[in-house]
Amino acid sequence: MTDALDPADMREQYRTKELSPADLAPDPIGQFALWFKETAASPAIHEPNAMVVSTATPDGRPSSRTVLLKHYDGAGFVFFTNYGSRKGTELAANPYVSLLFPWHPLARQVIVTGRAARTSREETAAYFRTRPHGSQLGAWASEQSRVIPSRQALLDRYEELAARHPDRGEVPVPPEWGGFRVVPEAVEFWQGHENRLHDRLRYVRAGEGWRVERLAP
Ligand SMILES: Cc1cc2nc3c(=O)[nH]c(=O)nc-3n(C[C@H](O)[C@H](O)[C@H](O)COP(=O)(O)O)c2cc1C
C-alpha cells in the first residue's frame, strides 16, 4: 500500500471573493439560475445538471443516486424517472427529498430540500416526446431497480420493443415513467474558501417570500 493515494493529503484551492447576502438574487431560483449559468459555462464540469437525489423510507432509511435536472422555475426542480424504481416508491411513501448539485471544480455546492410531487401526465408526455427514440424505448425496456437475470435479458427486451416500434413510429409514454417536481422549502448555496471559512447562505421560506440565513461552515 506504499504507493496508495492518501485522500488526507489532498488539498484544494478555494475562492477568495466572499459571498454575501447582498450579492444574492431575491429568491433561490434566481440565484440558482445565476450559478447554473456559470457552471454550464465552465469546461471543468461535465454535466452541470447532474444532481444527487436523496430519498428515505418512512422509517428513515436513506438512499441516494444521480439524476439529471430537466427543468426548473418558481414552481420547483423537475427530473424524470421510473415511478416503480426505488426512489419512486420511496417518494410515494415519503415525499421529503434532498437534491445536491456537486459543482466541485468551482468550489460550489447547492442543496435543495423540499417535497416531491409527480408532474402531470401532460407535462410528462410533453417531455417524453422530446427524448430520442432509443431512450423512449429504453424507458419501456427497463423496470428500473428490479433484479434482472442478465444484461442479455435487457437487450432482448429492447430489441423486441424496437421491432414493435420502428424508428418513426410514436412511442407511448410508459405508465410507470414520469416526472417529479421538487418544491423547495430551503436552498443552500455553499462556496469554498481558504482555512475552511466557507460561505453557506440558505434561503428559507418566510410567508410568501424567502429569508436568507448564514450557516457556520
Ligand atoms: C450522470 C447520471 C445521470 C442519470 N440520470 C438519471 C435520470 O435522469 N433519471 C433516472 O431515473 N436515472 C438516472 N440515472 C441513473 C440513476 O443514478 C439510478 O441508477 C437509477 O435512477 C435507479 O435509481 P434507484 O434504484 O435508486 O431508484 C443517472 C445516472 C447518472 C450517473
TrEMBL record:
Name assigned to this protein: Pyridoxine/pyridoxamine 5'-phosphate oxidase
UniProt superkingdom: Bacteria
Catalytic activity annotation: pyridoxamine 5'-phosphate + O2 + H2O = pyridoxal 5'-phosphate + H2O2 + NH4(+); pyridoxine 5'-phosphate + O2 = pyridoxal 5'-phosphate + H2O2
Co-factor(s): FMN
Record key words, sorted: Flavoprotein, FMN, Oxidoreductase, Pyridoxine biosynthesis
Family of the protein in this entry: Belongs to the pyridoxamine 5'-phosphate oxidase family.
Recorded GO MF terms: FMN binding; pyridoxamine phosphate oxidase activity
Pathway linked to the protein: Cofactor metabolism; pyridoxal 5'-phosphate salvage; pyridoxal 5'-phosphate from pyridoxine 5'-phosphate: step 1/1; Cofactor metabolism; pyridoxal 5'-phosphate salvage; pyridoxal 5'-phosphate from pyridoxamine 5'-phosphate: step 1/1
Limits of the Pyridoxine 5'-phosphate oxidase dimerisation C-terminal domain: 177-217
EC number of the protein: 1.4.3.5
Gene3D superfamilies per UniProt: Electron Transport, Fmn-binding Protein, Chain A
Textual note on the cofactor: Binds 1 FMN per subunit.
Domain Pyridoxamine 5'-phosphate oxidase N-terminal: 43-162
Residues that, per the record, bind substrate: 11-14, 70, 127, 131, 135, 196-198
GO biological process: pyridoxine biosynthetic process
Organism: Streptomyces termitum
